Amino acid sequence: MPSRDIVEAFAKRLEDGDFVGAIENFYTPDAATYENNAPPTVGRDKLAAKERGVLAAFKEVKAVRVGPSLIEGDSVASRWIFSFTNAEGVTRTLEEIAWQTWQGDKLIEERFYYDPKQLGR
After folding, report:
1. What is the pLDDT of residues 90-101, one digit of tens each?
2. Of 44, 101, 62, which is closest to residue 78 (Cα–Cα)?
3. Nearest to 28 by CA among 15, 13, 47
4. Whole-prediction pTM value?
């Protein structure tokens, strides 16, 4: 079960824009993430590489957590709003719920639930 301090440190990394650092420091080597119902991306190195690709595609990416993260045993739920600004200065927002499974103080699985139509606005 993750401590509140660990969950807050993870969220602060995201809010500070250190998305890759959050993966490298808080995910297990065999961690998996799921985007809605798509097949998972498995492995911390693959997850970090995928995140680097996303960041390279945008001029700026910001994360804001809405409310507190809810912790129950090994499960953590957080509500996020992400803003993606492209090279032309157009910003799109994505609101999502992240459902996480932790093993002690490390994330082993994360599922993101959002409406992909949000990015087309």
Report:
1. 999 999 999 999
2. 101
3. 47
4. 0.93
